């Protein structure tokens, strides 16, 4: 659509179309069961992470998975580089509460061992595990146990022939590589498939996922690989994953960051929240503060965020510096603070609850949020089924 001011009569506002044309409802994919969770279809976009411990070290791995669970991780993947790691999987799985995925490269015996140990999903590329007999064996064992397989293509590890054909790891090359693996499973009548097409290049991964979403109905696991750490890693992941989620593409996400894995989970939920695909835990709306602010807004906002970090209910909390935008945001939020002169008003569902001095603002707000949640006053919060938008 091109913009034309001349087509608009003077003094009239233009008719606003219902929809800008970009963005689509979430693509309908097949539903795949991963242990106690489901991926695809109308199920909420699942949040995954991967441990950074040596899988052979059961206690360290379990400890890290428990920390991930606490942060909201719903499916966890561990690297399985050798037989000892594969044999540790049963013990790990027995000690955790979320589905376990075994990440295996090249060795079909490790896949069989992982299945014996009771893993809930395999990440393995069937084209890389040798003969057709090997593949058949793994697929038969996975089918018997109702375990899905994720085919994970990375731009950095494409087959030589495919690279030679395309000259570079283009989105088309990545999709062709994935389809090669998919076809092997389809020929064996196996369709419990999840696909990932990860790249460091955001335009490349976005295009690869878009292409795949038009070609096959399997759930897509989104990720920007080797995104880095800190702000740059977060921004790269947020743009790549977020853009696809906004287009209705993606059934599960893993944010790959160089840092503690819990940060990946926090970031994944922030991306889901920002794209309005799913809300878990508090959404904190806070103004940037300006010359009108008469409280230490930065400190108040960060303390509110920290003190509510353990809440998993999807509440919206606004922390506003003054009365200019405060009441408006307070109206739409479950809870809010609007700063005044060394004091602030506390709101609950748009209604002023009390006025308190600045040094009591956080305590009073947090107490109000917690007591309201304890009352389980579902009418007052934006709870939907499971607190999530599918
Ligand atoms: S809400 Fe008030 S204090 Fe915050 S940025 Fe806006 S005008 Fe400034």
Describe the structure in your own words.
This protein has 390 residues and is an alpha/beta fold. It has 2 domains: 32-274, TIM Barrel, CATH 3.20.20.20; 283-384, 2-Layer Sandwich (Sulfite Reductase Hemoprotein, domain 1). Helix content is 38%, strand content 17%. It is built from 12 helices and 15 strands. The protein has helices at residues 58-71, 83-94, 108-116, 132-145, 160-166, 171-187, 202-215, 230-246, 261-274, 297-307, 326-332, 361-374, and strands at residues 32-34, 37-39, 46-50, 75-79, 100-103, 121-123, 149-154, 193-198, 221-222, 252-254, 283-286, 316-320, 335-339, 343-348, 351-357. The strands form 3 sheets. The protein has an 8-stranded parallel β-sheet. Helix 8 (230-246) links the parallel strand 9 and strand 10. Helix 8 crosses helix 9. The longest helix has 17 residues, at 171-187. The structure holds iron/sulfur cluster. The site of iron/sulfur cluster has 12 residues, from loops.
Low-confidence stretches: 378-390
What is the CATH topology descriptor of the largest domain? TIM Barrel
CATH-assigned homologous superfamily of the largest domain: Dihydropteroate synthase-like
> How would you sum up the major sheet?
8 strands, parallel
* Helix and strand element order: EEEHEHEHEHEHHEHEHEHEHEHEEEH
Specify the overall morphology: globular
Widest sheet: strand order? 8-7-6-5-4-3-10-9
CATH C-level of the largest domain: Alpha Beta
Beta-strand content estimate = 15-25%
Count the beta strands. 15
Helix content: 25-40%
């Amino acid at each position: 659509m091109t913009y034309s001011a001349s087509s608009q009569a003077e003094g009239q506002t233009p008719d606003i179309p219902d929809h800008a044309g970009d963005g689509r409802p979430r693509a309908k994919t097949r539903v795949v069961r991963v242990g106690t969770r489901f991926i695809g279809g109308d199920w909420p976009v699942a949040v995954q992470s991967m441990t950074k411990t040596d899988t052979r070290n059961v206690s360290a791995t379990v400890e890290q998975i428990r920390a991930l669970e606490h942060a909201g991780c719903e499916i966890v993947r561990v690297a399985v580089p050798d037989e000892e790691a594969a044999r540790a999987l049963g013990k790990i799985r027995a000690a955790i509460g979320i589905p376990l995925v075994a990440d295996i490269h090249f060795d079909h015996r490790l896949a069989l061992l992982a299945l014996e140990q009771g893993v809930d999903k395999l990440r393995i590329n069937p084209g890389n595990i040798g003969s057709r007999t090997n593949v058949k064996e793994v697929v038969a064992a996975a089918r018997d146990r109702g375990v899905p397989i994720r085919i994970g293509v990375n731009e950095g590890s494409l087959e030589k022939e495919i690279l030679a054909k395309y000259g570079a790891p283009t989105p088309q090359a990545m999709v062709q590589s994935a389809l090669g693996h998919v076809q092997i499973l389809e020929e064996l009548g196996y369709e419990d498939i999840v696909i990932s097409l990860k790249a460091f290049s955001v335009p490349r991964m976005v295009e690869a996922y878009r292409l795949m979403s038009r070609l096959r109905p399997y759930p897509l696991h989104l990720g920007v690989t080797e995104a880095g750490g800190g702000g740059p890693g977060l921004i790269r992941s947020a743009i790549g994953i977020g853009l696809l989620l906004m287009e209705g593409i993606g059934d599960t996400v893993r944010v790959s960051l160089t840092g503690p894995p819990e940060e990946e989970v926090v970031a994944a939920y922030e991306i889901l929240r920002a794209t309005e695909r799913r809300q878990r835990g508090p959404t904190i709306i806070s103004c940037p503060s300006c010359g009108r602010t008469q409280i230490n807004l930065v400190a108040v906002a960060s303390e509110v965020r920290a003190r509510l970090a353990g809440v998993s209910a999807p509440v919206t909390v606004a922390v506003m510096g003054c009365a200019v935008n405060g009441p408006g945001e307070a109206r739409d939020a479950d809870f809010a603070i609007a700063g005044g002169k060394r004091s602030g008003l506390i709101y609950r569902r748009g209604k002023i609850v009390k006025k308190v001095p600045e040094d009591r603002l956080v305590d009073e707000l947090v107490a109000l949020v917690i007591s309201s949640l304890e009352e389980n006053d579902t009418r007052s919060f934006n709870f939907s089924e499971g607190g999530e938008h599918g």
